Amino acid sequence: MPSEFHRPVRVPSAHFEFVQGGEDPALLVRTAHETAQALVSRVRADPDPEVVERLVAFAEREGIDAVAELWSRASALSLPGALWRLYLLREMIRRDPQLTALAFDRGVQRLRSIDPVVAGAPTPAGPEELLAVADEILRGVFEGDLTVALDRAAAFCRVTAAGCTDLADDADAASPDRAATLTRRAARLARLADELSSCARLHSDGALD
Asked: Can you quote a single GO CC term (predicted)?
């Protein structure tokens, strides 16, 4: 993914950093939880397709910084934290679809696990197919099974992380800088996968708030 997004996306995606601000942190976290719970429960109670599609494309339309302002300060293991990570994952794919598709394909070849199946992408999967998968995952938050959506996102991250590691190995001798960038990306995706998997387990237990 690029080191920085350009307007309307202004948060550096390469670092998955939380946005910093001068407001009361406790109030921001409480607001994050309240808005996430209200939004998800309200839309799931009446999943109007037009509303769902607007929510799927929210970060693309308003900028990932708008999502960050809502939910990025919340704990990783919370509903707002999970939403922030799902939108950030979709934006990563949207902003660098070619590399994401290459890494995902490498990951499918490298992994000997059920993750490629759980992620739900076709084989082979090009940029458009992966963007469609990201949209499907976000739709699942609002009109499907949230646990399944989180598990799919986690599996997608694990596959792509494995692919980034494989690409880094290939680039190590000829392009050490590129190899280092890919290695960092793999580590961030692996961490994201762990967080999303934990959120899925919490939701399955009725403890994701």
From this structure: DNA-directed RNA polymerase complex
